[in-house]
Amino acid sequence: MERELRLMKGNEAVAEAAIRAGVDGYFGYPITPQSEIIEYLMEADPAKTTGMVVVQAESEVAAINMVYGGAGCGKKVMTTSSSPGISLKQEGITYIAGAELPCVIVNVVRGGPGLGTIQPAQSDYFQAVKGGGHGDYHLIVLAPASVQEMADFVGLGFDLAFKYRNPVMILSDGAIGQMMEKVWLDPPRERSKEIPEWATTGKTADRKRNIITSLELDPFRQEVFNRKLVEKYDAIRENEVRFEEYLCEDAEYLLVAYGTSARVCQKAVQLAREQGIKAGLLRPITLFPFPTKRISELAGQLKMALAVEMSAGQMVEDVQLSINGKIPVHYYGRMGGMVPTPDEVVENLKERIIGG
Amino acid sequence: MKEITGIKEYIKPENLVYRKSSLLTDDIMHYCPGCGHSTTHRILAEIIEEEGIQQDTIGISPVGCSVFLYNYIDIDWQEAAHGRAPAIATAIKRLLPDKFVFTYQGDGDLAAIGTAETIHSCNRGENILIIFINNGIYGMTGGQMAPTTLPGMKSSTSPYGRDVATMGNPLKITDIVATLPGTFYVTRQSVHTPANVRRTKRVMRKAFQYQKLNRGTCFIEIVSNCPSGWKMTPVQANKWMEENMFPWYPLGDLKVPEEQQDQQPKTE
Ligand SMILES: Cc1ncc(C[n+]2csc(CCOP(=O)(O)OP(=O)(O)O)c2C)c(N)n1
Ligand code: SF4
Ligand SMILES: [Mg+2]
């Protein structure tokens, strides 16, 4: 079958891609700006076509624990929410990381803290990339910058989640979730009948019982497990870094931005170039693992880097770590649901250049 | 220890009145002497063995004293976060509808931190079995007050006795779930005497069989003891339970399937 072209909202694309990717179960709870996902799924009623289970849970806490249960059975399961709901899910997420279960979690970020605003933001970067819940763990974090990537990252997310037995977060924002764009949808995939050997599907005579747990009271054994996780994260850092460069070959000034901010910055690079400033853009596609190596390499040719984000300055810390003092690193951003304009970014860049 | 002499001559087939279920592992249970958890585990293992459903059963263990339940019964398990077992069970059953799925939860787990998950899985009528061990206390964390702690009962967080004016009354969550159309079979039992063990085994077997009907949630409360948390000997604890817990939590069926109502074995 051929790929199919549609005009869709980012949120709808996630839902449709989930059905087509052969997802076994979706568990969600409504919250703006991502409720279209569960609405779309309820209307599509994939139980009748692919057999995909869709459940509206009583809370985000319940939804993420349903994901735990489904993932523990070796199924492809996912949940979606927005910032306040993602905070509630953190308990379940750390248990999922601790039990080494694969799943996909989508955060269509809105501004905070607290109930905040329903407008787009990138203020959950730390939560997504540095841990979020308690304990030493990492999510694999994908940052879509288009409706196309909202769709594509569902399948990619599951591939990575199962490859590493690790939860994957798609860190989107209210703008990408709500805007409509053309999207090429993959032809539907059959739901997998494969059962991973660790899945709880009923103990048969030919194997030991499977136990999904994150509990280990013996500190020695817990540390052995922690080391195993560290090795896994190192392998992810080694193999899974994804990013996109725009006019970086001769760039002297590097913008670093993801998601909606990256779209703004692409335009800003064009404007800057028109004014004779050799700007380029590095767009991290994976936020964990972060494209540290590439940014560090680029530092050799750069005069300055500017992290642009819709937060008070979170990703900028990872840019600083990547550049490690070689050149000045600055931050520019808007908050509270405000999106920076390309002109603003260029103005800020120019001020920094003059300021040195 | 003094050696028991001559024991071998008693170990004869005709003297064997009891055997260990083949599904109980050789792990030494960590429970305090006289604790109702271990008896309930045994019943559970026996039923799964006797029904021949080991390969079709997935259990969810709680956070509480029975957290290591997965070490004791040889079936597939998922260990839940505190209170979340019914949500986990919901997904397992929805995704593997032909399997037997049950949760095993304490009163803190099920009736405090997990109240929402409990009520809503029952309200959706998830086709699962919930086994609820009500010992009126937080056993695992050292005897703090539970939602089920009796009025005036002392615990480490109600050292002067539970004051209902500020701490509320014991939560009869089993009565609540019995009112929900989603539940199919709701009963309250105990395992403190051989007769009660037999009765609990009978109702638990029935609850497993009901899961094949796909008619909603089965919910078995077991009013149990916590000799350590209650600071009593096992014998004292069982007596105290009969005299104090049973009046608040009377044993018997709270909801039986309509077609069964006439033939229910009467429970006290
Ligand atoms: C989120 C969270 N909060 C608190 C705890 C600590 N904790 C562990 S067990 C428990 C209470 C268990 O009591 P109950 O469910 O009645 O089980 P019992 O030990 O009495 O069988 C608590 C509060 C925890 N593990 N996780
Ligand atoms: S603390 Fe109480 S519930 Fe826990 S094992 Fe001991 S007696 Fe049983
Ligand atoms: Mg208890």
How would you explain this protein's 3D organization?
By secondary structure, chain A is α/β, with parallel strands linked by helices. Chain A folds into two domains: 4-187 and 215-239, Rossmann fold (3-Layer(aba) Sandwich), CATH 3.40.50.970; 244-355, Rossmann fold, CATH 3.40.50.920. Chain A has helices at residues 10-20, 36-44, 60-72, 83-98, 125-130, 147-164, 174-178, 219-239, 259-274, 292-299, 315-323, 342-355, and strands spanning 4-9, 25-28, 53-56, 77-81, 103-109, 140-142, 167-173, 180-185, 211-212, 243-246, 253-256, 279-284, 286-288, 304-309, 329-333. In chain A, the strands form three sheets. Chain A has a seven-stranded mixed β-sheet, sandwiched between helices. A five-stranded mixed β-sheet of chain A has the order 10-12-11-14-15, sandwiched between helices. A two-stranded antiparallel ribbon of chain A has the order 1-8. In chain A, helix 1 (10-20) packs across helix 6 (147-164) and helix 3 runs parallel beside helix 4 (83-98). The model of chain A has no long low-confidence stretch (mean pLDDT 97). By secondary structure, chain B is α/β, with parallel strands linked by helices. Chain B has one domain (31-257): Rossmann fold (3-Layer(aba) Sandwich), CATH 3.40.50. Chain B contains ten helices and nine strands. In chain B, the strands form two sheets. Chain B has a seven-stranded mixed β-sheet with strand order 2-1-3-4-8-7-9, sandwiched between helices. In chain B, strand 7, helix 8 (194-210) and strand 8 (217-223) form a beta-alpha-beta unit. In chain B, helix 1 (36-51) crosses helix 8 and helix 4 crosses helix 5 (115-123). The N and C termini of chain B lie far apart (42 Å). The model of chain B has no long low-confidence stretch (mean pLDDT 94). At the A-B interface, helix 3, helix 4 and strand 9 of A face strand 1, strand 2, helix 3 and helix 5 of B. Iron/sulfur cluster binds next to helix 9 of chain B.
